């Protein structure tokens, strides 16, 4: 009898990796009976024809946001003191003190942080969170679903969603093995491991080391390196369009060479529009000297702002907007869901652009999969003032310490150098590709094309009690 696996979506971020890739097809070929345990508003049955069990009860304990916030800050405090590193406080979001209700919440969070900012305290805080979530109707609802469907294993597609805690506790309490996939390359040092599962699947040996470093209650045999399906579509040649077909579909000028500007969210890069403006001015200057360049602007899918509009309007002759093909089903960042069609667009943007520029984005890896260079902006904008976050902070984060050398990206440290860097890349005199490929292996693992297969192989070993 085929082993039944619940692929659990606590929110929409896992859809890209585990619904729109070949993940399901590979699992079924290996003989797994796959059901999607769906906590999102996106119907996998209606849209993709997948077997799904919908979680209709969305109840969480009213104190969960408070305790979760305290847990994250307590973990960051412990990391700061344990590793004697001031980078960890920079991961904290400011307290909300607007209005009496928020002030009271903030005071209570600070009280909890004061009590639990130790390794033993964090374990106690996690137990408290689990106790709160076990008391909810959602816990009982999910437990009943698991008892009815009897999966052999629950695979949670992200470790960072508080919405998943009650469901995974229900599975553990029923003796069902649980696995969490660590979703993003920067998540572990940022104290974003919300759930506790029997196993953790990670991108690389780098990430495995991080999980064991930051979470001493996790044993080495619980952390399994699988890679991530995130980059697998870049190796799917069936997505490739000819330059002529791609340019025609998106109304691009076949005679121009395009540079991709990959936008950031407002938190990461609050003045991001001005870097786009700098690139537009650079392109205009180079075109005046005989180049024929344009810009493909691809926004961050979860950026709801209109901050780029004035720059785009002023440079319509240069900038072509190719919005990601994502579906907005709510106002929260995790309610903007990817579509399968976006894989094809991103593949061809990478393939048919000369290179990419952005502020510290992981699109450096999307483009290096197509042997394309990346410029990282790393200079302050004159619009920077008190209360606006400096983007230079991003490059000090722990995940950037994984770079084998600074040559893994082309860093533009001065706006006046941008034109020269662009020209050198276009002329083939400057590239970060070879060093970036080494970085890509460090971060994403050695075989980025086989992640889905490796995940199913690891699940098979767990079910055979061989891990």
Please give a structural write-up.
With 467 residues, the protein is an alpha/beta fold. It is built from 17 helices and 15 strands. The protein has 3 domains: 165 residues, Glycogen Phosphorylase B (Rossmann fold), CATH 3.40.50.2000; 67 residues, no CATH class; 212 residues, Glycogen Phosphorylase B (Rossmann fold), CATH 3.40.50.2000. The strands form 3 sheets. It has a 7-stranded parallel β-sheet, sandwiched between helices. A 6-stranded parallel β-sheet has the order 10-9-8-13-14-15, sandwiched between helices. Strands 11-12 form a two-stranded antiparallel ribbon. Strand 6, helix 9 and strand 7 form a beta-alpha-beta unit. The model has no long low-confidence stretch (mean pLDDT 95).
* Terminal CA distance: 21 Å
Global outline: globular
- What is the helix fraction of residues, given as a range? 25-40%
What's the overall average pLDDT, rounded? 95
Individual helix count: 17
CATH architecture of the largest domain: 3-Layer(aba) Sandwich
Q: In terms of per-residue confidence, which ranges show pLDDT below 50 for 5 or more consecutive residues?
A: none
Radius of gyration: 23 Å
Task: Give the CATH superfamily of the largest domain.
Answer: Glycogen Phosphorylase B
Organism: Flavivirga amylovorans
Protein name: UDP-glycosyltransferase
């Amino acid at each position: 009898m085929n082993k039944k696996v619940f692929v659990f979506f606590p929110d929409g971020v896992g859809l890209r990796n585990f619904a729109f890739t070949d993940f399901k097809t590979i699992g079924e070929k290996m003989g797994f009976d796959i059901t999607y345990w769906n906590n999102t508003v996106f119907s996998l049955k209606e849209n993709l024809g997948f077997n799904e069990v919908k979680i209709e009860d969305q109840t969480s304990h009213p104190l969960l946001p408070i305790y979760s916030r305290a847990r994250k800050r307590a973990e960051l405090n412990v990391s700061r003191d344990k590793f004697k590193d001031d980078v960890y406080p920079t991961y904290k979001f400011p307290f909300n003190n607007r209005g009496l209700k928020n002030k009271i919440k903030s005071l209570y969070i600070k009280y909890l942080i004061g009590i639990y900012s130790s390794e033993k305290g964090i374990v106690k805080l996690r137990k408290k969170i689990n106790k709160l979530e076990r008391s909810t109707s959602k816990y009982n609802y999910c437990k009943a679903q698991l008892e009815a469907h009897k999966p052999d294993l629950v695979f949670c597609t992200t470790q960072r969603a508080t919405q998943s805690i009650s469901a995974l506790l229900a599975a553990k309490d029923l003796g069902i093995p649980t696995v969490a996939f660590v979703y993003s390359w920067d998540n572990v040092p940022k104290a974003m491991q919300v759930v506790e599962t029997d196993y953790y699947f990670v991108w690389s040996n780098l990430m495995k080391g991080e999980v064991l470093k930051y979470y001493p209650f996790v044993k080495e045999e619980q952390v399994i390196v699988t890679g991530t399906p995130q980059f697998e579509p870049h190796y799917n040649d069936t997505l490739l369009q000819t330059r002529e077909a791609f340019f025609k579909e998106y109304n691009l000028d076949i005679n121009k060479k395009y540079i991709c500007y990959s936008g950031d969210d407002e938190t990461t890069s609050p003045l991001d529009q001005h870097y786009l403006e700098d690139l537009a001015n650079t392109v205009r200057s180079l075109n005046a000297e005989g180049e024929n360049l344009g810009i493909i602007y691809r926004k961050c899918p979860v950026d709801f702002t209109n901050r780029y509009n004035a720059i785009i309007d002023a440079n319509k002759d240069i900038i072509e907007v190719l919005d990601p093909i994502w579906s907005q089903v709510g106002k929260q960042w995790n309610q903007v869901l990817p579509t399968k069609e976006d894989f094809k667009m991103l593949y061809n943007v990478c393939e048919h652009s000369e290179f990419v520029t952005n502020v510290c984005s992981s699109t450096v890896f999307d483009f290096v999969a197509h042997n394309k260079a990346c410029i990282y902006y790393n200079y302050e904008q004159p619009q920077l003032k008190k209360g606006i976050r400096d983007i230079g902070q991003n490059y000090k984060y722990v995940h950037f310490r994984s770079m084998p050398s600074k040559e893994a990206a082309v860093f533009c440290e001065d706006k006046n150098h941008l034109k020269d860097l662009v020209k050198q890349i276009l002329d083939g005199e400057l590239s970060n590709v070879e060093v970036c490929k080494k970085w890509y292996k460090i971060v994403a693992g050695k075989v980025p094309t086989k992640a889905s297969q490796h995940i199913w192989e690891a699940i098979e070993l767990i079910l055979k009690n061989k891990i």
